[in-house]
Each structure stands twice: as structure tokens, then as C-alpha cells.
Automatic annotation (TrEMBL):
It is found in: Nucleus, Nucleolus. Keywords: Developmental protein, Nucleus, Phosphoprotein. Belongs to the UTP25 family. Residues 575-759 form the UTP25 C-terminal domain. Component of the ribosomal small subunit processome for the biogenesis of ribosomes, functions in pre-ribosomal RNA (pre-rRNA) processing. Essential for embryonic development in part through the regulation of p53 pathway. Controls the expansion growth of digestive organs and liver. Also involved in the sympathetic neuronal development. Mediates, with CAPN3, the proteasome-independent degradation of p53/TP53. It comes from the Eukaryota. This is U3 small nucleolar RNA-associated protein 25 homolog. Residues 74-122 have a biased composition (Acidic residues). Interacts with CAPN3; the interaction is required for CAPN3 translocation to the nucleolus. It comes from Cisticola juncidis. InterPro entries: P-loop_NTPase (IPR027417), UTP25 (IPR010678), UTP25_C (IPR053939), UTP25_NTPase-like (IPR053940). Residues 298-565 form the UTP25 NTP hydrolase-like domain.
Length: 764
């Protein structure tokens, strides 16, 4: 009882977001790990150290998790972790006095205790792959008891189901079946014109032979050069390639936008316009103009040059306009037909009013963080509000701001990170969420049940926990059956989260539903009844890079009968030009028979050809950068088996172990440091003491290459001449290699089977 009471008290001291993470994952998000941060100003170091020690001593997560464990081993491990944290913080003052400490570093106990146990990391990886689909029964009981006590836990969505989307109050108000168009506007008549892209796309009736052709025959492709997007690849199976040209000027009235959007879009988008844009084209930037031209043609689109710092918000506004325009036109068509059905004479054939799918959701937006969903909703609201006098009614807006907004106090203080890091991780970065949005005329409903929603905004994890896995009793994916527009934004971030969630979604979208869900089959389009929805679905895919896994989704899971458009520009220089230290780069090519065998070939090449050159003590301070966690585990196990003097850091390594590993590596007590890409993605720490770099594989993000290389300047010890950098690559790494060294050097390196030596002076 004492432990239970203590755990309940600790629960009440946690924030809502911490309670949510505890219930769903049993641990904090990697971004929120509170490492010991110290200012470089030595005058402030002692005060900060005291405050950090207090934070460690009252760590609610560690103490609460300790109360949930009953085995003596678990309790002893927790006590050991707390003692290690205390030792790490005590050592910070020592490192700071030596002048070699940077924010977040520390030291701990003996080496045999310094790293996360292999079994624990393995279990964490399995836990991450499931990503929160299970929770501790005791914790659930505590949280249930807390709710009974009257504590507000509404911000924590129920896991594994969609019970949280039960806004019954507004159900009839937002029902498409029971509402009618307020007035037959000119816009409704315009939507019925043959030139309307929405009507052209959705009303086209495919034949069975065309479906068979798309399923069996390969796609034909053609190229085009656009002023802003650059090199485009158009591919299609059915249609002969019509030349789609970029409009130099766009008149909003010619885009067939739903009437309110014609007036609101220029106001909402004016923040991105500059004096460079022509007066006749005052509503779109050059990038938006070309992107929207493709979107409005209902072709699939893959744009791999999204940048959170420069064009990210431009792109977000463009696809929000397209998605909202689609929803408004579709709903207007249904409401207009409702009035016609109401006024029809008895016995009249109603087959002409087929205007719906098997389920209501039409647009699915996949975004990585809650902050992204918050911005999307704000854009949609802005596009719907014609002026200050005509405000739209938004249901559950207060709750939405509370759950998706960010708390300034939760941002870790004194963090110095690159600008792109700050842009990606701005605001609320929780990656487990989903929300339904219903739009009807001048009203908008947040937290609508999925089967009453027009737009669903979710993270891969959020949608994955609803879809469930085969064999689970509680799973649902019928709401994905009639998705007409799929938008996957910032796809590169999902490579750092869990790409399997994206693949799981693609396998369950546009399938026939298992239940009717009250649909009126006389209103369902024939394309949905024939299970041809996937051939009408438009997929918009935005990423910061080209990656084989992202390319695979676009090539294998997009079946749009209109065709696909992919932006395929090649990098001319590469990120190696941003390396500011004088450093010799040796690119060592390994041979592999196939893309499936390259993993084993890389490992064998490393232990046979590369590692022996670094075993000598003179090659100390060697950092090995490993993009794949599975390669990292394989190398770690091999290093332990060979009894090499090494330490390691990954995204699951505990705080005290990270501090110790960095300290041991800096002082040369450990010769090797295994370092994962996901840890660098979430933390961006500067690792001091590097003299030798080994890239076990080329980084996923090309700018990580220059960032890691530039870490060598963090410790100026006058040994610049001994710095080395070795990179392993194969012919299957062509895209990553081009992003690092440029397309010209890549062509030469792939043709030659010899090692390539490059020397970067910082001015290349």
C-alpha cells in the first residue's frame, strides 16, 4: 500500500504529457531526456550543477517505474541507475574545472557498469518497434484511480482504440446525410462544369480492362524541366503523356477553387510573397504555383526537397489549400444532391446521385508531430474565415489547443542546436496522436469520430495503434477505405521514428470495409463498390531527401490512374563542401552481389579490412558512425566478443551512460565510440575528442556528414595532421553518395573500383 500511495503522489506531480508518455510507452520521448546541461561559463557551473542534481533526485519517472516493478532485480537496477546518475553529476564539476567539459557531459562509476546492458537495449528496441501498444496494468490502475479522484486526464488519449473521438453533441449538426445546401450558389454550378478538375477525376469511369492493364503492365515515363521544380519524371500506365507545363502566372479564378477559398487564399498566403512575385501572380510563390499545378491535376506527387527552414511552410499551405478545396467540393456535391433527392418525385430513379464513398473520410494527412497538426488546423481555419465578421464555428477548439499546443516551460534551457534542428523540433513534438476533422459549410468540428470526419490528421504511430495487427481483437481500418487524398509530409522523419508504421498504413488503405457503418449504398460511387478506390487516390509525398525506402512507397503503393510525378534533381556539389576542417577523406568501396547481401558484405569488409588498421593504440579517439540500429547492435556484440576497448551511445542509452561514454572517449580511456544516427538526430550533441572518423555507412541526411566531420574542430590539440576520415560505400549507395560528394564525383567513384582519396580544405 505504501508503494501504491507513493506512486499515486508521484503521478499527481507529473504533467499531463508526462502521464500520457508513462501510460503509452513507460518512458519519456528521446527528445525529452533531461541530460545534465551546464553553461560554459564557469561562474554559473556550480549553481546549475546544484539545480540539476535536484532534478535527478526527484526524477518522477524513475521512481514511479520503480514502484511498478516487483522483482528484486528490477529494484536493484533502479538503485544502481540512481547512484550512477549521482556519480555522473558529481563528476561534472571535475570536468568543468579541467576545461574539457561541454554541456551535457559527465562521468560515472566503473566501466563494467557504464553502458546500458545488452538485454535491456534489446528489449527497448522491441518495445520501440511495438511503440507503445502495451502498458503496465498497475500504471493503468493508478491512472484510473486518479481519474476517479477527479484529476483531469482528458489530454491523454486512450491507447489502442478510438474511444476518445466521441463528440456526440455535434453529430447531427455535421451529418452529411441530414443536411442540405443553405443556398444553391454559383460555386455549386461551377463545380459541376466539365472543366472542374475534381469532377473530371472522380467522375471518370474506368473499365475492367484498364484496371487489368494498370495491374500488369509497367509504367511508361517521360521527362520535363520546370523553372522552379527542376527535372520532373512523369509516369503512367493508361494515358499517353500529355505535356503538363508550369503556368508562369496563375489566376485564382481559373483554378476552380471553392468560392470562399478564392478570397481567403491570397490573404492567408501573403506572408510568403515577396516583391519579386509579379503583381498578376500575387497569390502563389513560384514553388507553390508549380506544386499546386500538379496537385490540381490529381496526379501523385513526390517532392524530395522539402526544407523545414526554407520552404516547409509554403508547401504546408499549398497542400492544405488543395485538401480543403477537395473536401468542400465533395461535401457541396453531397448536400446539393440531398436537396434534389428531397424534392424528387416518388418512384424516380436515384442512381444518378452517386457522390460518396463507403465511408466518409476523404483526406488523410500523416505528419510527424502534434505541432504539425496544430499548424494544419490553423491554416484550415484561416482559409475558411472569409473576414473578421464571418468567423466560423470551431467545436472543441479549447481542448485542441491544450492537447496540441506547446508549453514554453517544457523546453530544455540553454540548448544550442543547429537551425534545422530547432525548426524540426519546434513546439509540441509528441509523435502519438490522431484527430478527426469534420467540415460542413461554415462550421468545423475537431475531435469528430473517424466515421463522421472529412479529414484525419495523424502520426504514423497514432494511426498504427488504431489499425492494430493481425490477430488483435480491437482493431479498425474501415475508415481508410475511401481515402481520396493521402498526404505524407516530412517522410524522412519517419525513417528516424519507425518506418514500419508507414508500410503498415499503406497495406491497409483503400480496402473494402468489414462493416457497412450505416452507408446508403444507393449513394456510393461505383468505383468504391468495385474496390477500385486505390486507382483514384491521389498521394502527395514530401520529404527532405531521396531514400530507397521512400522511393519504394511511391513506386509500389501509388496506383493513380492519372499518373505520377516525381521531382528528380541531382546534387551538384554535396555536403562535403561544408566541411570546414582540413581533413583527408578516404572512400572505400565494398562489393556486394545484391542489395540484400550488402549488409553482411559491409560487416565482413569492416572487420577484415578496416578495423585491423585501427586496432593499434596510436589510432585512439576513433568514432564509428552507424546509421542502422541493427548494424550498431551487431558491431557492439562483435566488439564485446573481441574484448576491444570501446564504449557506445545509441538512442536508448541512459543519461548517466551517455555522460560516461563521452567523458571516457574525450580522455582517451576508450579507444572506440560506437555512435548511432538516431541519437544524433534527436540530440545533436557535439562529441569532443574525435581524431579518427569511420562512417560505417553514409548518413541518411547528407548534412550529417559535414556536421560529424566538423566536430573534429571542437578539440584543438594541435594534432590536425593525424585526423582521418574513412567512409564505406557500395554501388547501392549512389543516392547517398551523390548527396555527400556531388553527382560528378559519384559517377567517377562508381565506375572505378579503387579507393578514392579526397582532401577537403574547407573552401571546396
Amino acid at each position: 500500500m505504501g508503494k501504491r500511495r507513493a506512486g499515486r503522489e508521484l503521478l499527481r506531480s507529473l504533467s499531463k504529457k508526462q502521464k500520457k508518455h508513462l501510460r503509452e510507452f513507460g518512458e519519456e520521448h528521446p527528445f525529452y531526456d533531461n541530460f545534465s546541461f551546464q553553461s560554459e561559463d564557469s561562474d554559473k557551473s556550480s549553481a546549475e550543477s546544484d539545480s540539476e542534481t535536484e532534478v535527478e533526485q526527484v526524477s518522477g519517472y524513475h521512481k514511479l517505474l520503480a514502484t511498478l516493478k516487483t522483482s528484486p532485480e528490477s529494484e536493484s537496477e533502479e538503485e544502481e541507475d540512481e547512484s550512477e546518475s549521482e556519480e555522473a553529476e558529481e563528476s561534472e564539476a571535475e570536468m568543468d574545472s579541467e576545461g574539457s567539459q561541454e554541456p551535457g557531459e559527465g562521468e560515472g562509476g566503473e566501466e563494467d557498469k557504464n553502458d546500458v546492458p545488452e538485454e535491456e537495449e534489446g528489449s527497448l528496441e522491441r518495445f520501440a518497434s511495438q511503440h507503445g501498444r502495451e502498458s503496465t496494468d498497475t500504471a493503468e490502475q493508478m491512472l484510473s484511480q486518479e481519474q476517479a479522484d477527479g484529476t483531469d486526464t482528458s489530454c491523454a488519449p486512450r491507447h489502442g482504440g478510438i474511444e476518445e473521438f466521441t463528440d456526440v453533441k455535434h453529430e447531427s449538426e455535421f451529418s452529411l446525410e441530414t443536411n442540405f445546401m443553405e443556398e444553391e450558389s454559383e460555386d455549386c454550378n461551377a463545380d459541376r462544369r466539365d472543366s472542374n478538375p475534381f469532377k473530371q477525376h472522380m467522375d471518370k469511369e474506368l473499365e475492367e480492362k484498364e484496371i487489368e492493364k494498370m495491374s500488369t503492365l509497367p509504367k511508361t515515363s517521360s521527362q520535363s524541366q520546370w523553372p522552379r521544380l527542376g527535372r520532373l519524371i512523369f509516369s503512367s500506365t493508361l494515358e499517353k503523356h500529355k505535356t503538363l507545363k508550369a503556368d508562369k502566372e496563375v489566376d485564382v479564378k481559373q483554378l476552380h477553387l471553392h468560392k470562399p477559398l478564392e478570397s481567403t487564399w491570397p490573404k492567408v498566403n501573403k506572408q510568403f510573397l515577396s516583391v519579386v512575385d509579379k503583381p498578376a501572380d500575387s497569390s502563389f510563390t513560384s514553388l507553390q504555383r508549380e506544386l499546386f499545378c500538379i496537385m490540381n491535376s490529381y496526379r501523385d506527387l513526390f517532392y524530395p526537397e522539402r526544407n523545414a527552414l526554407t520552404n516547409g511552410e509554403e508547401i504546408r499551405h499549398a497542400y492544405c489549400l488543395h485538401a480543403l478545396n477537395h473536401v468542400l467540393k465533395a461535401n457541396a456535391q453531397v448536400l446539393s444532391n440531398n436537396a434534389k433527392r428531397r424534392d424528387r418525385k416518388p418512384g424516380t430513379d436515384t442512381d444518378e446521385h452517386r457522390d460518396q464513398g463507403l465511408t466518409r473520410p476523404k483526406v488523410l494527412m500523416i505528419v510527424p508531430f502534434r505541432e504539425c497538426a496544430l499548424r494544419i488546423v490553423h491554416i484550415i481555419i484561416s482559409l475558411l474565415e472569409v473576414n473578421d465578421k464571418k468567423k466560423i464555428d470551431v467545436s472543441n477548439k479549447k481542448r485542441f489547443k491544450g492537447e496540441f499546443g506547446s508549453d514554453p516551460e517544457e523546453k530544455p534551457p540553454n540548448l544550442k542546436r543547429p537551425e534545422d534542428y530547432e525548426a524540426v523540433f519546434a513546439g509540441n513534438i509528441d509523435d502519438h496522436f490522431r484527430i478527426g476533422v469534420a467540415i460542413l459549410q461554415r462550421s468545423m468540428r475537431l475531435y469528430a469520430p473517424f466515421y463522421s470526419s472529412d479529414i484525419i490528421i495523424a502520426s504514423p504511430l497514432g494511426i498504427r495503434t488504431v489499425i492494430g495487427a493481425e490477430g488483435e481483437k480491437k482493431r479498425d481500418f474501415d475508415f481508410l477505405s475511401s481515402i481520396e487524398i493521402l498526404i505524407i509530409d516530412q517522410a524522412d522523419i519517419y525513417l528516424m521514428q519507425n518506418w514500419e508504421h508507414v508500410l503498415h498504413l499503406m497495406k491497409h488503405i483503400n480496402l473494402l470495409p468489414l462493416d457497412s457503418h450505416g452507408v446508403d449504398f444507393s449513394r456510393v460511387r461505383m468505383l468504391n463498390l468495385n474496390n477500385w478506390s486505390k486507382y483514384y487516390r491521389q498521394t502527395l509525398l514530401f520529404s527532405a531527401l531521396q531514400d530507397p525506402q521512400i522511393n519504394s512507397v511511391f513506386n509500389k503503393h501509388c496506383f493513380n490512374y492519372v499518373g505520377q510525378v516525381a521531382v528528380r534533381n541531382v546534387p551538384l556539389t554535396g555536403s562535403i563542401s561544408h566541411v570546414v576542417v582540413q581533413l583527408p577523406h578516404v572512400f572505400r568501396r565494398l562489393e556486394a552481389d545484391s542489395i540484400t547481401s550488402v549488409i553482411d558484405a559491409r560487416f565482413q569488409f569492416f572487420i577484415d579490412k578496416v578495423l585491423p588498421e585501427y586496432r593499434d593504440a596510436i589510432m585512439s579517439h576513433t568514432l564509428i558512425y552507424v546509421p542502422s540500429y541493427f548494424d550498431y547492435v551487431r558491431l557492439r556484440n562483435y566488439f564485446k566478443k573481441e574484448d576491444l576497448n570501446f564504449t557506445h551511445i545509441c538512442e536508448y542509452t541512459k543519461k548517466a551512460a551517455v555522460c560516461r561514454a563521452r567523458r571516457f572517449f574525450l580522455k582517451g580511456e576508450k579507444q572506440f565510440l560506437l555512435f548511432t544516427e538516431r541519437f544524433h538526430f534527436y540530440k545533436r550533441y557535439t562529441i569532443k575528442g574525435i581524431r579518427n572518423l569511420i562512417f560505417y555507412e553514409l548518413p541518411t541526411y547528407s548534412h550529417f556528414y559535414s556536421e560529424i566531420c566538423n566536430m573534429l574542430k571542437a578539440t584543438d590539440s594541435g594534432v590536425d595532421a593525424t585526423w582521418t576520415c574513412t567512409v564505406l560505400y557500395s554501388k547501392y549507395d549512389a543516392q547517398k553518395l551523390a548527396a555527400v560528394v556531388g553527382i560528378d564525383r559519384t559517377a567517377q567513384m562508381l565506375q572505378s573500383k579503387k579507393n578514392v582519396h579526397l582532401f577537403v580544405t574547407g573552401e571546396n
